[in-house]
Amino acid sequence: MTTAIRPWETLVIDYYQQSQFQPFALEHPGADEGRLGAMLMHGFTGSPAEMRPLAQLLSDQGVNCHVPSHPGMAGDIANLATTTARMWREHALEQWSEHTSRYDRTLLIGYSMGGAAAVQMAAHVAPDLLILISPFFRINDRRAFILPLARHMIREFRLLGSLDFDDPHVREWFMAALPDLDLDDPETRRVVREESGIASPVIDELRKFGALGRRDATNVTAPVVVIQGHHDSVVNPRHTRESLDRFQRLQAYHEIPADHLITLDVRPSWPAVRDLVLDEASELTKVAARA
């Protein structure tokens, strides 16, 4: 018997109440003194679960890992429509200030929108290393320039309105993000296409947040590593490359065969991401392993 499809908003709110989507920490026993503390920031409308594979990877190297959640996302997704770039920024800086007061040595990793957050955090207090994974600075849509006006005229953007549910890549994405959805059910397809829109003001706040990250990049004094998927349709690789010269100490730029779901260990690109993070952070994690 097929369960009746609920409105998209209710489905997503209920889905993100599960424990795996909540903020978490992976800590080792003993004093923090001498221990490397890593903070990992997830992406827009995502959750801390996106960063768990990387957090576990670093934890296995002796690193204390902390993964917060942005306001209006994950378990707080019901409040997304009322969140702003200022709220995201203030929350990120508050989390980072607390983290850097606890650890003498820090690693900061930001993915997608979390990349924009991490740049702002690193400009506020420099980590020992900043790793950006598919960092969001600019909306990959030609309509983005009208957002300051459109937020007052267009109710929402249906970002999933033209999805091809028979495309293997689309199906893989939903299997990773919302595995319980029956994508072969016509009503499920209708709900996803017609009810998954995000309010225009929220998209405009996202645009502002990316711009804040791009602005603050020039104030980051920490060494920076950037990992970008070559096939990413969410964060345009060209936009990422155009932002590289804004960093004072670009340590490395890696563009690999990958789409946007680059932090998930179920994706083919995971071994490359795993190895790059371990290699670039090796000097820090070697000390952490001895702590």
Strand order of the largest sheet: 1-3-2-4-5-8-9
**What percent of the residues sit in helical stretches (DSSP H or I)?**
25-40%
Distance between the termini: 55 Å
Largest sheet: 7 strands, mixed
Output the radius of gyration: 19 Å
- Arithmetic mean pLDDT: 85
Shape: globular
Low-confidence stretches: 1-5, 143-158
Structural class: alpha/beta
Going by CATH, the homologous superfamily of one domain would be Alpha/Beta hydrolase fold, catalytic domain
By CATH reckoning, the class of one domain would read Alpha Beta
Order of helices and strands: HEEHEHEHEHEHHEHEHEHH
Do you know the CATH architecture of one domain?
3-Layer(aba) Sandwich
The fold-level CATH name of one domain is: Rossmann fold
Helix-strand blueprint:
Elements: H1 8-15, E1 24-26, E2 36-41, H2 52-59, E3 64-67, H3 85-102, E4 105-111, H4 113-124, E5 129-133, H5 147-150, E6 156-157, H6 168-177, H7 186-195, E7 198-199, H8 200-216, E8 224-229, H9 237-243, E9 250-256, H10 270-280, H11 282-290
Parallel strand pairs: 2-3, 2-4, 4-5, 5-8, 8-9
Antiparallel strand pairs: 1-3, 6-7
Helix pairs in contact: 3-4, 3-8, 4-8
